[in-house]
Amino acid sequence: MLDLPGAYRRFARFIFFPALAVVVWGELKPSAHGPENGLDKVFHFTAYFGLAGIATVALGERRLAIKAAAGLALFGGILEIVQSFVGRDAEWGDQAANAAGVCAGVIAAWQTVRAVRSLAKKEKH
Fold first, then answer.
1. What's the pTM value of the predicted model, to 2 decimals?
2. Which of 2, 13, 80, 119 could make a disulfide contact with 90, Cβ separation 3.0–4.6 Å?
């Protein structure tokens, strides 16, 4: 269980679905770029890093966070498939960036929580 004040978890719950909506919009809106330059992979990684980090804090339990991470990676794959129906290109590279972002986001969130927890313990003593 995360040892964070409830306000952090409530805030993460509050922003998760708006953040998810922004990611869905970004993946399904008509593409206005020219040739791919690799920057889109950075966008995919960053978006799913953020979603996974928010979900990890919102859920507060490692097992639930891992399940949410798997769900987010699967959801990213589904959005890649849907892109082919809305005039966008579905790419394995985008899905790899999504999955890498999810993994990194969960790890970063847990490490941050551990650091905050450690600092809080030091302040109590």
1. 0.88
2. 80
